[in-house]
């Protein structure tokens, strides 16, 4: 099935409820096994990428990732374009609840135009590879003034078969509280949608801001690849 149709047919009201209530949503089986394999097979094809980052060198964790160059591979471009319009209303609702004037445009093209106006012109979609002992330190993917508050990650290997450990970890931190960890174990082909920076949470007196970070726990065995889609471009 075409990517756009596959995405449009997901249960968006349920996904939006997960994002509103918990700051993330796990969607099973969005990519086929073949699509996961094709993305991994392209890892060695340097022409596809604009930059490689060895995570240890920056204390980002242990592993490696590569940012795709424009034009993005068709699969990634289609995912980025077709998921965005379903998330923009959720993001706009968040901004309203947090009393922010900001409204995100309804289409990815217009978000990218806003990024360009701020000098954010580099693509941020990436592919990551971790081996035994690898991990990704807790972080937020912000690359300039324009940032969309949700992003995607697709898991390209099968936990329990291709690797052990390597769980996807989120922390959420409410004002004047300690952080709480959320540990997810997505399967191969699953899509996670999660909060990039902050989201509103309902308290006794209206909505307050909850900060979120994400990372990956240590791989105890095997190899784990993932593909991330961030909607804003980078400086
Ligand atoms: O490997 C992962 O699951 C997390 C990747 C990540 O940090 C990202 O896509 O922004
Ligand atoms: Fe990230």
UniProtKB/TrEMBL annotation:
Gene3D superfamilies: q2cbj1_9rhob like domain
InterPro entries the UniProt entry points to: DUF2086, Oxoglu/Fe-dep_dioxygenase_dom
UniProt keyword list: Iron, Metal-binding, Oxidoreductase
Top-level taxon of origin: Bacteria
UniProt GO MF annotations: metal ion binding; oxidoreductase activity
Domain (Fe2OG dioxygenase) ranges: 121-234
Family (UniProt): Belongs to the iron/ascorbate-dependent oxidoreductase family.
Name the UniProt record assigns to this protein: Prolyl 4-hydroxylase subunit alpha
């Amino acid at each position: 099935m075409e990517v756009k149709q596959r995405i449009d047919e997901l249960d968006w009201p349920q996904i939006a409820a997960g994002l509103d209530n918990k700051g993330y949503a796990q969607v099973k089986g969005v990519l086929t096994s073949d699509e996961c394999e094709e993305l991994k097979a392209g890892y060695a094809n340097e022409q596809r990428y604009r930059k490689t980052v060895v995570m240890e060198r920056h204390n980002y964790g242990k592993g490696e990732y590569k940012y795709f160059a424009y034009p993005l591979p068709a699969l990634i471009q289609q995912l980025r374009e077709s998921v965005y319009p379903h998330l923009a209303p959720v993001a706009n609702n968040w901004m309203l609840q947090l009393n922010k004037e900001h409204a995100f445009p309804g289409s990815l093209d217009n978000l990218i135009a806003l990024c360009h106006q701020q000098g954010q012109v580099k693509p941020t979609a990436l592919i990551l590879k971790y081996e035994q002992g690898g991990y990704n330190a807790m972080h937020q993917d912000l690359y300039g003034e324009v940032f969309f508050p949700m992003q995607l990650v697709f898991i390209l290997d099968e936990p329990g078969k291709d690797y052990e450990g390597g769980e996807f970890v989120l922390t959420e931190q409410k004002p004047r509280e300690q952080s709480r960890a959320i540990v997810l174990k997505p399967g191969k082909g699953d899509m996670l949608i999660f909060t990039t920076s902050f989201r509103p949470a309902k308290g006794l007196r209206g909505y307050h801001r909850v900060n979120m970070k994400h990372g990956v726990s240590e791989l105890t065995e095997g190899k784990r690849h993932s593909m991330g889609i961030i909607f804003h471009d980078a400086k």
